[in-house]
Amino acid sequence: MTIYAQLGYTFLGLFLVLNWGMLMSATFRKIVARVAGRHGIPIYQPWIDLVKNAGVRTTLSHGTMFYLGPVFRLTGAVGMFLFMPALVGIGNEHWLNFSFQGDIILILYFQLFGMLGMALGAGEGGQPHSAIGIGRGLAQHAAVELPLTLGILSLAIQYQTLSLVDIANAQQGGILNWTLFTNPVASAAIMLAALGAFGHSPFNLVKAPNEIPIGPPTEYHGSYLGILMSSGAIIHVMEAALFMNLVFGGATSWIEFIIKTFLIYFYSIFVGVVFPRFRIEQSVVWFFKLPLVLGIIAILIYSF
Question: What is the pTM of this model?
Answer without folding.
Answer: 0.91
